[in-house]
Amino acid sequence: MKQLYSPSNLCKYVLFFCLSTVLLSCKQDHQPEKVEVEPTLKEAYKNYFLIGSAVNDNQISGKDSLGVQLIKEQFNTITPENSMKWMYMEPAQGEFNFEMADRYIDFSKKNNLVFIGHNLVWHSQLAPWVNEIKDNEELSNSLKNHVQTIASRYKGKIHGWDVVNEALNEDGTLRNSLFLEKLGPEYLTNAFKWAQEADPNAELYYNDYNMTKPKKREGAITLVKNLKEQGAKVDGIGMQAHWSLEGPSLQEIEESIIAYSELGVKVMITELDVTALPNPWDLEGAEVSQNFEGSEFMNPYTEQLPDSVSNQLAKRYRDIFALFKKHQDKISRVTFWGVNDGQTWLNNWPIENRTNYPLLFDRQFKPKAAYHSVIQVAKDSTL
Ligand code: XIL
């Protein structure tokens, strides 16, 4: 017993104690770190709204395999970026080409993606023969045939159709398209009615850009009210959302979401991208026919986006999604216009051959700071 507390033994105890403390702390240091796996976009927003992307032919054909992987992982709804527009669907009068559109539909079915048809009636990317029609009755019959043939072919397979795209001017009056000029405003009601007859269960939308501008907003509200009064079914309004770092303001966006929702229709953000490049003459919107000369000044980030701008983009996306989340009861879908920065149409519009950075995934298909901020918004219970 005496020996137990001898000075030499005490020394041993102290040494043992020190050693085991060091060993224990070493063990703790080497325990695998808890890595928190970030949810995907569709998981993060599953209780709020659908999250989608425009997809292109390279993805549908499988050539862009990394793009396909992201689509399957991140999104639960898709919209064809180009292939269902008039010039591709009916390139010659009465001659329809369903091949690509069928493949898009198959892809969405196979991958359990909600499919949005884009679009049935639009003045852009129209087949040239339509402009050649001299007789108004022939034009009306062609429009009817186009809408009915396509909508009935995909009856039951399409969740919703952008029935009419961009029928308004910036001041809220009706755009003087070929259809308005020759057929009068009835072409709008007819297009919705023909689509409904062909596919009664599909949701039907009016889709346009600059839908946050007060005058255009008033025009859109009047248009949808008129359509409904004339017996057309309108289920939703699509706000394209080709936005920039500066505008539209959050207030304009919020007022618009509320105003559209008060019409009793679903609000959708249908073509979201946020340009990080200077805009020629502060151009707003997405009028695809507008094109401007390029210059170094207009294409400042050819190698990479500076951190300062990348942070601005992340902040802008954060603010926008916080607003969308706040109005989740009104918004049914948010669709990005493209999967990654390498593929965005904004590399070529409104100036060709620029290097733009408007989406959540970079040219290597990696999530950007903007992606993480969008996910953070979904997770933040205070928002
Ligand atoms: C764009 C496509 O992204 C481009 O590839 C094409 O060259 C032009 O059209 N509003 C719309 C979309 O409704 O269909 C447009 O898509 C972008 C503006």
Automatic annotation (TrEMBL):
InterPro entries (UniProt xref): GH (IPR017853), GH10 (IPR044846), GH10_AS (IPR031158), GH10_dom (IPR001000)
Protein's name according to its UniProt entry: Beta-xylanase
Superkingdom of this protein's organism: Bacteria
Coiled-coil spans in chain: none
Enzyme Commission number(s) from the entry: 3.2.1.8
Domain GH10 intervals: 35-377
Record-linked Pfam families: Glyco_hydro_10 (PF00331)
Active site, per annotation: 271
Catalytic activity, reaction form: Endohydrolysis of (1->4)-beta-D-xylosidic linkages in xylans
Family: Belongs to the glycosyl hydrolase 10 (cellulase F) family.
Keyword entries, A-Z: Carbohydrate metabolism, Glycosidase, Hydrolase, Polysaccharide degradation
SUPFAM superfamilies: (Trans)glycosidases
